[in-house]
Specification:
It is a single chain. The chain contains 9 helices and 4 strands. It has a 4-stranded parallel β-sheet with strand order 1-2-3-4. It is of the alpha/beta class.
Length: 195
């Protein structure tokens, strides 16, 4: 399926339930408070979203990570970068093109500055943080660990309080720093490199 309009894109994903969706929500006409990647994941939870966008500004990338996208490729990258991203994401991994390394480093630096003051997380909090970073919602996390959604929400609040991080993008980058999930493409510096 294909679409050039937000509502139609959501309907097509809900109808077709594709394995992969390539979106440029930045330029897609959008008056919703929920970005397109979040909407697709809500209507078709099994769909992996790859953003193919003209810009990789920090706030767009942060929003993409928070939305649980599996990949992000800038249009200025060689075309085979998109093909590479699709192959990697289809293999259940995340992929951010190398051209985004500076933006990802900046997001990790910000996360590390905030998280450096954080208290240690419990084992369960780390498990939940890892799944948040993988883009899972509280209901999915609850099912994974045989917990109530209410319990997962409480754990999520404790994580945010301890780390002083709120957006899912910042929590995801904190999970990378704690090595709970791998850094995309090795593009991010080791936590010891971040000052």
């Amino acid at each position: 399926g294909s679409s050039g309009e937000r509502g139609e894109a959501e309907r097509e994903c809900a109808r077709l339930r594709p394995d992969l969706a390539v979106v440029d929500w930045i330029h897609l006409a959008d008056t919703s408070s929920e970005n397109l990647a979040e909407a697709i994941r809500r209507t078709s939870p099994g769909t992996k979203v790859v953003v193919f966008a003209a810009t990789a500004e920090t706030h767009f990338v942060s929003d993409a990570i928070a939305a649980g996208v599996a990949g992000f490729v800038v249009k200025s990258a060689p075309l085979d970068s998109l093909a590479t991203a699709l192959r990697i994401v289809a293999g259940d991994k995340q992929h951010f093109c190398p051209e985004m390394a500076d933006v990802l480093r900046e997001l990790l630096r910000r996360s590390s500055m905030n998280a450096g003051k954080a208290n240690h997380l419990s084992h369960r909090e780390k498990e939940v943080l890892r799944e948040i970073a993988r883009g899972h919602v509280s209901k999915e996390i609850a099912a994974m660990f045989n917990l109530s959604v209410y319990t997962v929400e409480n754990i999520r609040r404790r994580i945010m309080r301890k780390t002083r991080l709120k957006p899912a993008a910042e929590l995801t980058l904190h999970a990378v720093r704690l090595q709970l999930i791998p850094a995309p493409n090795g593009a991010l510096p080791d936590a010891s490199e971040v000052k």
